[in-house]
Automatic annotation (TrEMBL):
It is a multi-pass membrane protein. GO terms for molecular function: monocarboxylic acid transmembrane transporter activity. This is Major facilitator superfamily (MFS) profile domain-containing protein. Residues 232-246 have a biased composition (Acidic residues).
């Protein structure tokens, strides 16, 4: 029996296509031999490296104001300036999200992780010497952000490359171990500050962050650990048929959209997607021309199209090329825009509240140790409910978006309680409630967008979300600091943060109601036609 062996090279950075790009097939033999991710083996070392690195670096960002709040007071820095430094750090890193994919394709995730770890450690170390707004802005706002921006996507790409079937389990283990850091680090920083002061503590934390290099060196290329797997082509055909059944794009007509949970729509301009829809519509460059009584022949139409293309200047072609690379056609989808804006508003509000938490507690008269204890309590409740919230959602049958909405309501309620509670022990109870809400939000924050956007467009959707999130941080963060400087109290900052979170709830519920109304009307029309 004749057989042929085809080998395909693996392009760097393509974690999702590992199985298809690194495959060898024997046609006509009855079985297919493919190279697949190990789903274990060295992948567990990669998972541990990811957890170790995040366990150290993530709390350093979250405890920035705990470490430097006294330094801010010494140099007379206003709340607006402090908010600007914090939000520039996040906005600059998120703005670089557009080039993450290109950098990871050009270089391996291992090289990027090594360089990012070094930059992150240098940024933390130089920040310890800061005694002015510009110094903080350059070292923490820009240099530290540059390292952290490329640090997380490189580790995430490596972890996703090594796991496919066990990806959820590996990510769960990694997130659980990562959650230990925010529990320990505030107490450690509090103890180090009492012994070595702010500058000495900053240098020690810089040395600790260099441990992320160990995790970076564990990110071996996936091609070293690929495994051969024999599969029955009959079973593969069944799996491919099941995947085809789940797509929303009809092969019979480029203008037809089929939702697994909804109905067919014959227009591209307003596709009807259900709340749990997995894929969004595929864009085309122009819509079909309508037929009229004065029908032109196909050659005349083509000539007109060619004339339009020839009239386009070089700059316009460049813009079209950039739009194609960045997949800016996503911005034509109203549902995606509403999801993205809502998540960006909530994320900006939550990040600013996390950074302001030590300052809020300091205003209430709590000591550094008490502040660190409350922050550790929040982190402990967070990690517990990261683990338990998916079981609750499965039991009650709530969707991803519903769980995320529940977490937003819980965040608003728990944050508002701080205004009426100002002693240590009651605040511990509030910390537990905040941790529960944060745990639920953390789990479903990363699932809202993938539940709507298809995987092949998810990197572009995530990159656009990061860019707009950075813009939101620059706009919203200094505004919170301005509210504090004008009012003289962080209570009004809490009110403003809750107001932004409530705005997202209103946006999403309104959009969901309109979508359901349109779907019902479309179903009525289809029934009447039939």
């Amino acid at each position: 029996m004749d057989s042929r062996l085809k080998k395909q090279a693996h392009p760097k950075g393509k974690s999702e296509d590992v199985k298809s790009n690194l495959s060898t097939s024997k046609r006509g033999v009855g079985k297919t031999v493919e190279l697949v991710p190990p789903d274990g083996g060295w992948g567990w070392a990669v998972m541990l490296g990811n957890a170790l690195s995040n366990m150290i670096t993530n709390p350093l960002i979250q405890t920035f104001t705990l470490l430097y709040k006294d330094r801010f007071n010494e140099i007379g820095m206003s709340a607006t300036d402090a908010s600007m430094i914090i939000n520039v750090n996040y906005a600059f890193g998120m703005g670089l999200g557009l080039i993450h994919g290109a950098v990871l394709k050009r270089f391996s995730y291992r090289k990027v992780a090594i360089v990012a770890s070094i930059l992150n450690a240098i940024g933390v170390g130089l920040t310890s010497f800061a005694n002015s707004f510009i110094h903080f802005l350059m070292t923490y706002g820009l240099l530290n952000s540059l390292g952290a921006s490329f640090f997380h996507p490189s580790f995430s790409l490596a972890l996703n490359s090594y796991f496919k079937k066990k990806r959820g389990k590996a990510m769960g283990y990694s997130m659980t171990l990562t959650g230990i850091g925010p529990i320990i680090m505030p107490l450690l920083i509090s103890k180090l500050m009492s012994v070595y002061g702010v500058q000495g503590t900053g240098l020690i934390l810089s040395a600790l962050s260099l441990h992320s290099l160990v995790g970076a060196f564990l990110l071996q290329p996936i091609k070293w650990h690929m495994k051969r797997k024999e599969e029955d082509p009959v079973e593969d055909e069944g799996n491919r048929q099941e995947d085809e059944d789940n797509t929303i794009i009809s092969e019979s007509s480029p203008n037809k959209f089929v939702s697994r949970f909804g109905v067919e729509s014959l227009t591209q301009e307003e596709p009807i997607n259900s709340e749990n829809s997995i894929k969004i519509f595929d864009e085309t460059t122009y819509t079909a021309l309508k037929q009229t009584d004065d029908v032109e022949n196909s050659d005349g139409i083509q000539n007109k199209i060619n004339k339009v293309k020839n009239r386009k200047g070089a700059f316009q072609r460049l813009l079209e090329r950039i739009a194609s690379i960045l997949d800016l056609s996503l911005l034509k989808d109203t549902h995606y825009i509403i999801l993205m804006l809502g998540m960006n508003i909530v994320m900006s509000a939550e990040l600013n509240f996390s950074f302001l938490t030590p300052l809020i507690l300091d205003e209430l008269g709590l000591s550094d140790y008490q502040t660190a204890t409350i922050m550790s309590t929040i982190a402990a409740a967070d990690i517990i409910f990261r683990f338990s919230s998916p079981f609750f959602a499965d039991y009650v049958g709530y969707s991803v978006r519903t769980m995320y909405l529940i977490s937003m309501v819980m965040l608003i309620a728990s944050r508002m309680t701080i205004i009426f509670v100002n002693t240590f022990h009651p605040l511990l109870g509030v910390a537990v409630a905040l941790g529960i809400a944060k745990g639920v939000r953390s789990v479903y924050m990363g699932l809202v967008m993938p539940s709507y956007v298809p995987l092949d467009r998810l990197p572009s959707a995530t990159g656009l979300q990061m860019v707009f999130n950075g813009i939101m941080m620059i706009m919203f963060g200094p505004f919170i600091g301005f509210v504090r400087d004008v009012s003289g109290s962080y209570n009004w900052c809490i009110v403003a943060i809750n107001g932004m979170t409530a705005l997202t709830i209103v946006m999403w519920l309104t959009e969901s109601a309109i979508t359901n109304w349109r779907r019902r009307n479309l179903q009525i029309i289809i029934k009447s036609v039939n």
